[in-house]
Write a structure and sequence with these properties.
Blueprint (H helix, E strand, L loop, with lengths): L8 H14 L5 H8 L6 H10 L7 H8 L4 H7 L3 H4 L2 H20 L1 H4 L2 H14 L8 H7 L7 H27 L3 H10 L6 H8 L3 H13 L11 H17 L1 H7 L1 H20 L12
Helix pairs in contact: 1-11, 1-17, 2-7, 4-5, 9-11, 9-16, 9-17, 10-11, 11-15, 12-14
């Protein structure tokens, strides 16, 4: 079905679901499960966890599909990581991590609740309308089986919706002429992106790369002398999100206004519980 939605309804729903997927990357359960496979480097673990649906890919494929990682960092780990653990083994470990993480953060009662089963059903229904063309990360995840347990089905569906929106967002970044570091720096300047130390610590860029990108944004009139977004910079970031909304509209139109509202409500409840249980580092988001 298709129906008109309130402005930004799909974006609000995404913002409720996406972080629960992301709990995986900050979870001690990931270190344990991937350590058992012989993967102990934090960067290698997290790169493998997200790229495993693509198969035993190399640095070039991941640079293209992840967009904002430095190629040299990727080449340190890919494709070599697959010599230690196959993509199939990593996918199994990823699902075990999601299971352990959600049980720890949300509790057994929430995991087994009717609300969790309802959220999984709604999210999977939305994902029925996702499209594969020009969506490599979504499409690769869509080839994976849907887990039977509702909390894992919910995590899987959140992953599908996250990657579908993310693939579209890359097209918007390209259209806006933002390179990987410029995209990161301008997002951080909104106050909603990762703090610089997290960007530099996980994406492979150096402080000199960051400052050079900020200089280029200043030359375009997008950042001011203090590194804050100018009016033009704020407008560009909002245009990026609006373009992404348009490219990502189909799943939420398919689910319908009432379904999107209910899924957002349920997703926010789970997210608040997870955040309250320490799912994310306290200094993850911010300008400093």
């Amino acid at each position: 079905m298709t129906t008109s939605l309130p402005p930004r309804a799909g974006r609000r729903c995404h913002n409720a679901l996406n972080p629960l997927h992301s709990t995986l990357y900050f979870s001690p359960d990931l270190d344990r499960e991937f350590g058992a496979l012989g993967l102990t480097d934090p960067a290698a673990m997290r790169l493998a966890a997200r790229s495993a649906p693509l198969g035993a890919v190399g640095a070039g494929t991941v640079a293209a599909t992840f967009y904002n990682y430095k190629a040299e960092l990727l080449a340190q780990h890919l494709p070599g990581v697959w010599e230690t653990a196959s993509p199939a083994a990593v996918l199994d470990a990823r699902l075990r991590t999601a299971d352990a993480t959600l049980r720890r953060l949300l509790g057994e009662e929430a995991v087994a609740s009717p609300e969790m089963a309802e959220a999984a059903g709604l999210a999977l229904r939305a994902a029925e309308a996702c499209t594969r063309h020009a969506r490599p990360l979504y499409s690769a995840n869509a080839d994976l089986p849907v887990p039977e347990e509702p909390h894992l089905a919910y995590w899987h569906a959140a992953t599908l919706l996250r990657e579908h929106r993310g693939d579209g967002h890359l097209a918007a970044l390209l259209s806006a002429g933002l390179d990987p570091v410029e995209a990161l720096a301008s997002h951080t300047a909104t106050g909603k992106g990762m703090a610089p130390r997290w960007v530099l610590g996980t994406r492979g860029w150096r402080r000199a790369d960051w400052e050079a990108a900020r200089d280029r944004l200043r030359e375009r009139g997008l950042l001011d002398a203090d590194g804050e977004l100018t009016e033009a910079g704020g407008r560009l970031r909002e245009e990026l999100e609006e373009t992404t909304d348009r490219l990502d509209a189909a799943p939420y139109q398919h689910l319908g206004a009432a379904g999107v509202e209910r899924l957002t409500e349920l997703g926010r409840g789970f997210l608040i519980a997870a955040a309250g249980a320490g799912a994310f580092p306290g200094d993850l988001v911010g300008k400093g």
